[in-house]
Every structure is written in C-alpha cells, then in structure tokens.
Write a structure and sequence with these properties.
Family (chain B): Belongs to the GerABKC lipoprotein family.
Protein name (chain B): Ger(X)C family spore germination protein
Strand content of chain A: 5-15%
Number of domains of chain A: 3
Keywords (chain B): Germination, Lipoprotein, Membrane, Palmitate, Signal
Oligomer: heterodimer
Main location (chain B): membrane
Largest sheet of chain A: 5 strands, antiparallel
Number of domains of chain B: 2
Largest interface: A-B, 27 and 31 residues
Radius of gyration of chain A: 29 Å
Order of helices and strands of chain A: HHEEHHEHEEHEEHHEHEEHHHHHHHEEH
Distance between the termini of chain A: 26 Å
Number of strands of chain B: 13
Strand content of chain B: 25-35%
Number of helices of chain A: 17
Shape of chain B: globular
InterPro entries (chain B): GerAC_N, Spore_GerAC-like, Spore_GerAC-like_C, Spore_GerAC_C_sf
Order of helices and strands of chain B: HEEEHEEHEHHHEEEHEEEHHHE
Structural class of chain B: alpha/beta
Largest sheet of chain B: 9 strands, mixed
Radius of gyration of chain B: 26 Å
Number of strands of chain A: 12
Chain lengths: ~450, ~375
C-alpha cells in the first residue's frame, strides 16, 4: 500500500509531491493544467487535463463557489457534499481518472476528486464510410478537442501522448499527434514529426489532404497511411503502436504506418467469432482478387486463350457475343467506364436522388446495352461482379486504388493475353513489395495473433 | 508530360490492334472433335471436323447446332490447312476433346497421323482417343436425341460427369500414345457404334492395339472385365448359374493385384488376386443369408472362368494389359530383358485367385 501512504494528507511535505509526481506522469498529455486559485489568504490547487473536462462546469461548480465562500474550510465542506465527488483509491487509478476527465483539488492539505467530464456526444457523426454491424456506430466529430476526448474515453491509458502543434499553412489548423508512449515505434514517430516539419504546402484542409502530402511520393497509387473515421479502429491501432494524426475540422484521422493488409481489415472481424471472421476475410480477399483481375481475365480468355474454359461456356460466351461490333477490350472498357460513372454519380448525388441513378444506370441501361448488342450478357455479369466486389474492400481509399489497378491489368491483357495478366499481376505485386510506409515494408506479413497484436509492437 | 503522351499513344495503339494472337471468340470456331477415315479415292486420309456453333440464347435453343467439314488429303496436316481455306473463321483446336479414328485404320498402324496430334501444341493431350465403327465421319455426324444445347454428348460418355459404366473404356491422347508405343503395354481404345436409325451412340466395346501387333476387338464382356480389373470401374453385373439357380451379382468394389513369378531369371507365371465386393442384385430363387458363403464360392467359380477367358484372348493375340511393363519396371534393366519377356508371355500360365465377398443377399428379411 505504498500508493495509499503517499496519499496521506497529514504530512505537509508530501502534498506537492503527489502533484509533482502526477504532473510528471501526465507530462506527455500536453494539455495538463495545474493551477492554484486563491482569494485573500485562502487557496486551493487544481489539477486536470483540459481537453477532457467541461470548462463551464469547472467555472460554475468549482471556481465560482470558491470565491463566493471565500473560506478553505467551507469550500472543502462544499466539495465533500458534491454528488459527483469520486473516491480516491490509489495513484494508478487516480492517473486513469484524470485522463478520463476528473478534476483533482487540493484544499487544506486534502485531495478531492470531482467528476466534471466533458461529454460531446451530440456532435459525433454516425459512421458513414466504414459501417459495421456490431461495434460502435458513432464516428468522430469535426472538432479536435472532442475527438481527443472520444479517444481518451476509449483508451484510458496515462501513457497516451498528445502532441499538439499548429500547421504553418494558411489554414493554421491545429494538429495533434497521438500515440501510446510505451508501445509506439519511435522510428515511425520521428519520421512523422520530420515530415510534418517539412510540410510547405500553402493550404491543407483535411486529413485526407494532409495524408497525400505526408506520403512524399508524387505518383503514388496505393495509400501509405490509413484514413479512418472509426474510433474503435483508431484505438486498436493506437494500442498496436501506431501514430495517429488528427487535424482539427476533419472527421477522419490518419494513421501511420500502414501495410496493405490493414486496408483489408474490417472492424467487424474483431466482433465475430473465429470461423465467421475467417470466412468473411476470405470473402473479402476473393472480392479483391475478382475486382482486379476479372475484366482482364475476360479479355484474355475471350480474345487469346478460349481453350482454358469449358467448351460449353466457350460456346455460350461466343453466342452472347454474336452481333457485338467491337473487340472485347473496347466492350470491357466501355462497360467499366460506365460502371465507374455510375459509382461516381452515386457519390456526388444527394442521397434522395441516388437511388434513381442506380436504377436508371444499372437496370435500364444494362438491359438496353445487351438488347442493342453493344455488350454481351456475360460482360454485364462480369462488370456487375466487379462493381460489387469493389465495395467489399472495407477502406474506401483502397477500393479507389484497386479501381485504377484493374485498368492497368486490362491493358496488359489486351496486349499480351493470359500471359499478360500474369505479368501485370506480378508487376503490381512487385510495386507493392517495393513500396514503403514510413520506413516499414508495405507488403510484409506481420504475423501476429490478436492478443499479441493489441499488445503492440514493442511492449515486452 | 512526356510520360502522359507516351501512355496515350500506347493506349490509342490498342484500338488498331489486329495482331495474329488477338482474335475474339466470335471470330473463332470451336472444333470439338476430329474424325479420321481412310481416303476414299486416293492414298491418304479423310479428315472430318465437328464444329460446335455458338448458341445466342441457351434457353431458347432447341438443340445443339453443329457444322461438319470434310477434306481428303495425303496427310492430316494438309487436310487441316486446306480446311482453313473453306472456313471464314479461325480454327480453334483448343477445344478438341475427341479424336475419332476409323476402326480399319488401327490395322495399318496409326503412328504417322497420331504423331500430328501429339505434336500440335494447341490440341490438348487430354483429348479422348476413340475408334469408330463403321466410319469416323458417320459417328461424328450423329446428333443423339438426348443432346442438349451447347453440349457435346459424344464426350459425356468418357468423362465421369455423365454416364458411368464399366463397359466404357476411356483413353486419353497422352495415355494412348504411351500405351501404344510403350513396350510391355498396349492401348485399349473404346469403340463407338451407332444404331440403324443413326440417332444413338453406343459405346461398349474396345479395341486393343499396340505397335507391331494386330489389333483385336474385345466384346462387351471382355471390355467390362478390362475396365473393372484394370480401371477399378464399379457398378458391374455378373450372372452366376448353378443347376437351376441363377442370380446376378451387383459388384461395387473391385480390387486386383498381380505378381510376376520368376524362376532362374525367367518369368514362369503370373499370379493374380482379385477381390470383388458387392451384393446379389437379382435371383430366380429365394436366397438365404446363411448361405452367403456358398454363393460366394459359386460366384468365384463363375468369375474366374470369365477372367481366364479374358486373359487367354489377350495372350493369344500377343497383347498385353500392362504385365510386361510391370516386369520391366521391377527388374534390373539388362540386355534382352524385354525379349525374354516377349518370348515367355505367349504361353505364360496365369494363376487366378478370385475372392468374392457378398455383403448381403440384397433383400430385406
């Protein structure tokens, strides 16, 4: 009970010590505030973390009464009778409580812990980019303070470090770097700091924007940091030792480093039982493979190597192509562009009208295209399959990248047939293997089981 | 900027692409079977192509549509070259699944034209080799009533996706070549026939041929024995007769092993162990479960007789289902090893031991 003895309020010398010790441990938080309040001879000391407490409440229930009562003794009595007073257990829990939004007051050599947590739920947005069935449905808000608050609520570790800086561009946005000091990879952290220091873009408006500049690669196809709006994903990655970059005004944060496989994880995987999550993961990779390779495979098989499919299928495909005037790759490009247009239109349209776009585009045009013999039936199946499997990729950024990849493969298939598809695919693998994300290889398998992964990279 | 210009030029160049390899599937015609007959007028061969025509809508199509092209020439390769000038589309050999050879051609040796098929890279070695009676052209032109749109019923016989029967022998091109040219083994090729109305295909016989020996035709029973003993094809019926009791066996598992007995470095006999497991499928008398052993013995005797007959026929014709190959494979290779075998094989005693294990009399008691 060493912790308890040090909380003993009788000893005069120990009082500043507890505050000093707490302050020392909370130093990484960056927004810890230790302030004395005094009137005449009476005084009290307050310790709290600014971003997680409610300023109004602090003003109304603590500071105002102190000045009105103007007596240490009465103030202490007042505090003792407050309903949101919390029992102090030991120093460790005290730290956790402080990070959650408690206020520690020292009056007349006694410590009182008051809950004046700031709750900001009303401004939190519902997740729209990465919806899950289970798990939290709320995402982040557009205010940095709230977001840090949200994360602290979910990740009540005193080792959670918050570094707040201001961007030097014209927006002068406030930027926060969050990491768990005990598990973070310092190399990555240094790279992030360095790259943030090197930023010289005139205007940065959102995290996605920032992500592109941090990437420091002019012609990148795949994202090298992971953009997310889900607090559970952030906390999961935080615990795993990643660095979170937050920008005030953005409902998304970005995380570094990221490997390819991070983009294929849905938070639902953690909420399902073993075989369910294995099979959905398998499904997702199958979808990834389908949406990259299928159009290219169609061209390669139809125009170069029809002998790899069954005779019956070959006959059906040949039959469905009767009357189609253009070669297969024109047909595929035409239909793919059409589907891309449809997807793009659905994003831009207001929600109320977007259903019309899909109906007109998908159903009516699809049928009409076949009727007019501009594309074959099988092509419509291929294109729909491709479109649907693109949406299976959990992180939107990655599905955008994959959409571009398939055109690259299509070009290879058109020029070199089935061998071209293989060569193109190997090319993509090579490109990915060559890529780095903040010094970490992009295509490396970091084999770890779930509990090891949560423990983080460096925690022993 | 230069990169983009290059990329755009490259992309545009695909529009005018009409190279030799890029051919859309609707500009190709799929050959599903090739038939070879002796030429009618001159020396050489008559080649028949069976071409499956694409169906625009499988649901509405009444049946399959095929086209046939025939050409006579001195060699098979020449005929195919000439046929290219008769058809406006590219001949696609990737889907050739059957090579149908007139039965007569087996007598004169078929090495020279079969060589063409194994050498051509686009004909897959998993094509079936089939003998045709009376002629390949006639067999190819038969379109059975059971044929559905977009399918080729000729092929359904030989892969096990369709019918499965112990009477049907399957011989792939790669296997045929190995067996035909290999020493100590001969090829068993199914014979395909038709009925008088020419609306059925019938496959229940086989022709055995090998390099340097005259082919023989196996009748239904012998074909069945070959398939069940050497290919472990199940689902066969055996008729067993004893005085006035007649019953049919329904065998669902056949296992055969054999051993070549040698004395003084010379093969002296072949010892065959065959095990049949099944039930009694039909009987003209009431059968008793207690007398299963008796039925086993009766069946063993009947089956042994048939098996002896089968092996005798092959031995007399100098054809080998694979004993010689086994002999060569399990002995240290030395000069004259195979000659020694060849000499001995003709009248090598075959010692057959049959075990029949009936699981039940087939009736519920």
């Amino acid at each position: 009970m060493k912790g308890m003895s040090s909380l003993n309020p009788q000893s005069d010398n120990q009082i500043p010590h507890l505050f000093a010790r707490l302050l020392n441990k909370l130093q990484v938080a960056g927004d810890t505030i230790h302030t004395p309040i005094e009137i005449d001879e009476e005084n009290a000391q307050l310790l709290f973390i600014k971003s997680v407490i409610d300023g109004n409440q602090l003003q109304n229930t603590i500071i105002k009464p102190f000045f009105e009562l103007a007596s240490e003794k009465r103030f202490l009595q007042y505090l003792d009778s407050l309903p949101n007073k919390i029992e102090i257990v030991d120093e460790e829990t005290l730290l956790v409580e402080l990070t959650r939004g408690m206020l520690l007051i020292n009056v007349q050599q006694r410590y009182v812990l008051i809950d004046i947590k700031k709750v900001n739920t009303d401004s939190v947005q519902i997740t729209s980019l990465e919806p899950t069935i289970y798990g939290p449905q709320g995402g982040l808000s557009e205010s940095l303070e709230t977001n840090i608050n949200l994360l602290r609520q979910r990740y009540a570790e005193p080792s959670l470090a918050v570094e707040i800086t201001t961007l030097t561009d014209r927006s002068k946005s406030v930027l926060a770097i969050l990491y768990d000091k005990e598990v973070v990879d310092t190399e990555v952290l240094d790279t992030v700091r360095k790259r943030l220091g090197q930023l010289n873009n005139p205007l940065i408006q959102s995290t996605a924007d920032l992500e592109l500049y941090l990437n420091q690669e002019k012609f990148a196809l795949f994202p090298s940091t992971l953009l997310t709006e889900r607090p559970d994903r952030i906390v999961y990655n935080l615990a795993g030792g990643k660095v979170i970059i937050m920008l005030d005004g953005s409902p998304q944060v970005t995380m570094a480093p990221a490997v390819f496989f991070d983009f294929m994880v849905s938070m639902d995987d953690h909420y399902h039982n073993f075989w369910t999550s294995i099979s959905t993961t398998f499904l997702r990779y199958a979808g990834l493979f389908t949406c990259t390779v299928l159009p290219a495979l169609y061209v390669a098989i139809i125009s170069y190597n029809p002998d790899v499919i069954r005779t019956e299928l070959a006959l059906t495909v040949a039959g469905s192509r009767i009357g189609v005037p253009y070669p297969s790759y024109i047909e595929v490009i035409f239909m793919l562009v059409f589907i891309e247009l449809l997807t793009e239109a659905s994003i831009r349209l207001p929600k109320a009208v977007s259903a019309t776009a899909t109906t007109v585009g998908g159903l009516i045009l699809g049928t009409a295209v076949v009727e007019a013999a501009l594309a074959s039936n099988i092509m419509i199946i291929v294109v729909s399959l491709v479109a649907i499997s693109t949406f299976v990729i959990p992180i939107n950024e990655m599905s955008f990248s994959v959409r571009a990849t398939r055109f690259f493969l299509l070009l290879y298939a058109t020029l070199f047939g089935l061998a071209g598809v293989i060569i193109g695919f190997v090319g993509i693998i090579m490109y990915l293997a060559n890529k780095e994300s903040f010094g970490k290889p992009y295509l490396k398998f970091y084999w770890k089981n779930r509990s090891e992964e949560i423990k983080g990279g460096l925690k022993k | 900027m230069r990169v983009f210009t290059l990329a755009i030029i490259l992309l545009l160049s695909t529009v005018i692409q009409s190279g030799c390899a890029f051919k859309d599937i609707d500009k190709r015609i799929l050959i599903v079977a090739i038939g070879i007959d002796p030429a009618e007028n001159s020396e050489g061969y008559k080649v028949t192509l069976k071409i499956a025509l694409p169906v625009a809508s499988v649901k509405q199509a009444s049946g399959p549509r095929f086209a046939y092209f025939t050409e006579e020439s001195e060699t098979v390769g020449e005929s195919l070259r000439i046929l290219e000038t008769h058809i406006d589309k590219v001949l696609e050999f990737g889907h050739v699944k059957a090579i149908v050879i007139n039965e007569e051609l087996f007598k004169d040796g078929i090495e020279d034209f079969m060589d063409y098929f194994t050498r051509r890279a686009d004909i897959q070695l998993i094509a079936y080799v089939i003998a045709a009676r009376p002629s390949a052209e006639e067999i190819l032109k038969i379109e059975p009533d059971t044929e559905a749109a977009s399918t080729v019923s000729l092929l359904n016989f030989f892969d096990d996706t369709g019918t499965e029967s112990p009477y049907i022998t399957t011989s792939f091109l790669f296997q045929f070549r190995r067996d035909y040219l290999g020493k100590g083994i001969d090829s068993f090729v199914p014979i395909i026939e038709t009925n008088e109305e020419k609306n059925e295909l019938i496959v229940n016989k086989a022709i055995v041929s090998g390099e340097g020996s005259d082919p023989i035709v196996l009748d239904q029973i012998k074909t069945k024995y070959y398939n069940s003993l050497f290919k472990s094809k199940a689902g066969m019926d055996y008729k067993v007769e004893d005085d006035n009791l007649t019953f049919m066996l329904y065998i669902d598992k056949v296992k055969m092993s054999y051993k070549i007995i040698e004395e003084d470095k010379k093969p002296t006999s072949i010892k065959i162990n065959a095990k049949f497991v099944g039930i009694i499928g039909q009987s003209n008398h009431a059968l008793s479960q207690d007398k299963l052993n008796h039925y086993n013995e009766l069946s063993e005797k009947a089956i042994k007789e048939k098996m002896t007959d089968f092996f005798k026929t092959l031995q007399e014709a100098g054809l080998d289902p694979g004993f010689g190959l086994r002999y060569r494979a399990t002995r240290l290779n030395s000069d004259g090893l195979y000659e020694k075998w060849e000499e001995a094989y003709k009248d090598l005693p075959i010692d057959i031991n049959v075990t029949v294990k009936l699981k039940s009399t087939g009736a519920l008691e």
